[in-house]
Write a structure and sequence with these properties.
single chain, 286 residues, alpha/beta, six-stranded mixed sheet, two-stranded antiparallel ribbon, 5 helices
Length: 286
């Protein structure tokens, strides 16, 4: 009689092998890759903010740029100044000057007064009201239009001659708030110096709102990639030519220190002059 002989698996230590249905090996499911979170770029350092502004100015092709330029004989040195000249009768005549003040954050922009935040809110509200009222004036008082430009952005209106009493009250409120905010401040003193055609405040993007500026000042935003964006255009001040020349002379005097350093000339506090090899440029730079 035939008997089925049990089969043995040599790897089962003598135990009969059980016939099992083959099962696929379990596959371990890995969690989907999470998108990499891009870390925000660190804020620019003060010297990097100045680099960004100088780079922005260079693109505007000025005749000269300087740093720490005095606007008076010795007071109120501005962070950056520039000027543009044009030829006239075989000579160069200055036709435009610009000042840029650079601040790390909004706290550096205002005078030290406890009500500054409250005043800034009021100033912003009144300027928004002013814009609304000017739109009303353009409809109700078309005779105040001073130009016939085809493009709205170049239109000029004499709003101050309006008979709109609410608008006139709004102007007085803005003037009063600004006087409280900026009286005696560095920004106001620079403006009163009347040496620059254009005045700009430059800050990291978002630190200051355009409506928080004193009248006449423009606003520049600097991002983490050194890009500069003009948020608000500065109003043209048109100083006399003698005042422009004053700023340009201050710019030249401020640049002397850098010129001497670049040529290896050192002047000590007691006026003695020493010479050293000029700093070398890195290879590949022009």
């Amino acid at each position: 009689m035939n008997k089925t002989q049990p089969s043995f698996d040599l790897f089962q230590e003598g135990k009969p092998a059980e016939q099992k249905e083959a099962r696929p090996a379990a596959v371990k499911t890995l969690p989907p890759d999470e998108p990499a979170v891009k870390k925000p770029a660190p804020p620019l350092k003060p010297f990097e903010l100045k680099q960004a502004i100088m780079g922005w100015l260079v693109a505007l092709a000025p005749s000269g740029i300087g740093a720490q330029v005095p606007t008076r004989i010795s007071k109120y040195q501005v962070d950056v100044a520039a000027f543009w000249s044009a030829p006239e009768k075989q000579l160069l005549k200055p036709e435009k000057t610009m000042i840029v003040e650079i601040r790390d954050d909004r706290e550096q922009c205002w005078p030290d007064c406890g009500d500054s935040d409250k005043l800034l809110r009021k100033l912003r509200e009144r300027k928004e009201q002013k814009a609304v009222l000017e739109a009303v004036i353009r409809v109700n008082e078309p005779g105040l239009k001073e130009s016939d430009s085809l493009f709205d952005e170049y239109e000029s209106w004499n709003y101050t001659a309006s008979v709109n009493q609410e608008y006139q009250r709004c102007l007085k409120q803005i003037e009063k708030i600004q006087h409280s905010l900026y009286k005696g401040s560095r920004f106001e003193q620079i403006r009163r110096g009347h040496v620059a055609d254009l005045l700009y405040l430059a800050v990291p993007a978002g630190e200051v709102h355009a409506d928080e500026l004193a009248e006449g000042w423009g606003l520049l935003y600097i991002d983490s990639q050194h890009n500069v964006t003009e948020i608000k255009k500065a109003e043209l001040q048109e100083p006399p030519e003698s005042n422009r020349l004053h700023l340009i002379q201050g710019l030249a005097a401020a640049a002397m220190k850098n010129v001497l350093f670049a040529h290896g000339v050192r002047v000590s506090d007691n006026g003695k002059t020493a010479f050293s090899p000029p700093p070398r440029r890195r290879k590949g730079t022009k």
